Amino acid sequence: MTATAPIAVALDAPDLETAARWASLVTPHVSTVKVGLELYMRYGPDAVDSVRGASRVQVFLDLKLHDIPATVRGAARAVARLKPAYLTVHAAGGPAMIREAVEAAPDTCIAAVTVLTSLGDTDLTAIGLDGPAPDAVRRLASLAVGAGAQALVCSPQEAAAVRAEVGPGITLITPGVRPAGAASHDQTRIATPEQALASGADLLVIGRPITGAPDPGAAAAAIAASLRRSA
Ligand SMILES: O=C(O)c1cc(=O)[nH]c(=O)n1[C@@H]1O[C@H](COP(=O)(O)O)[C@@H](O)[C@H]1O
């Protein structure tokens, strides 16, 4: 049996049946499935159990926590019992908040989201965040790692620069991944799966290019095969 590809499929579905069906189709090919806000807001912990099923797939719980440190500590502690492999927090929540999440979920890899891949430089100016994006990402990456985050979320466009900034021990997770010719949807800072891997990403988050395909299992298998060829 071939090893699964370092891909987290974003199960952004309106209902649990659809998410569980996508999960069962893609898990032979990918290492990880991601439960995000859409599913968790509706189903809570059941969403995690349901997509995990009987398989050994890793679950990435993407709740993008961003609140005062004590509240994030409580939230991280509450979901730690679900044993997700990864849990996201926003790096912009600051070092004290990140530290609380790391301490509250010791068996989970806390992944700090730097600058959302949907944002471009004009958005950063509107928000009041000093850009350009690669500079803001590097700054937040360094802050998050200093606070104990073991993983970082950034676009594949910044992965090489972030790796140079934080060194080899940190897991780099990149959404904003689109196979050549695929629709970008609401993503702004994108690259192909092969480019993401070559830039040093450890885990590629891919949603709609897989889940929106007529056969999500075949779409996941095709991307996994292209990554194997490019490795
Ligand atoms: O934390 C994330 O996973 C995340 C961070 C980010 O900066 N951008 C981003 O798109 N994501 C998530 O990655 C997934 C991307 O999905 P697609 O655009 O359909 O491939 C979605 O579930 C987003 O919530």
TrEMBL record:
GO terms for molecular function: orotidine-5'-phosphate decarboxylase activity. It comes from the Bacteria. Pathway: Pyrimidine metabolism; UMP biosynthesis via de novo pathway; UMP from orotate: step 2/2. GO terms for biological process: 'de novo' pyrimidine nucleobase biosynthetic process; 'de novo' UMP biosynthetic process. Substrate binds at residues 12, 34, 62-71, 117, 178, 187, 207-208. The keyword Transferase does not apply. The active site is at 62 (for ompdecase activity), 64 (proton donor), 64 (for ompdecase activity), 67 (for ompdecase activity). It catalyses: orotidine 5'-phosphate + H(+) = UMP + CO2. One of its GO terms (cellular component) is cytosol. InterPro entries: Aldolase_TIM (IPR013785), OMPdecase (IPR014732), OMPdecase_AS (IPR018089), OMPdecase_bac (IPR047596), OMPdeCOase_dom (IPR001754), RibuloseP-bd_barrel (IPR011060). Residues 6-223 form the Orotidine 5'-phosphate decarboxylase domain. Keywords: Decarboxylase, Lyase, Pyrimidine biosynthesis. Its EC number is 4.1.1.23. PANTHER family: OROTIDINE 5'-PHOSPHATE DECARBOXYLASE. Homodimer. HAMAP family: OMPdecase_type1_B. Belongs to the OMP decarboxylase family. Type 1 subfamily. Catalyzes the decarboxylation of orotidine 5'-monophosphate (OMP) to uridine 5'-monophosphate (UMP). This is Orotidine 5'-phosphate decarboxylase. The lineage of its organism: Bacteria, Bacillati, Actinomycetota, Actinomycetes, Streptosporangiales. The gene is pyrF.
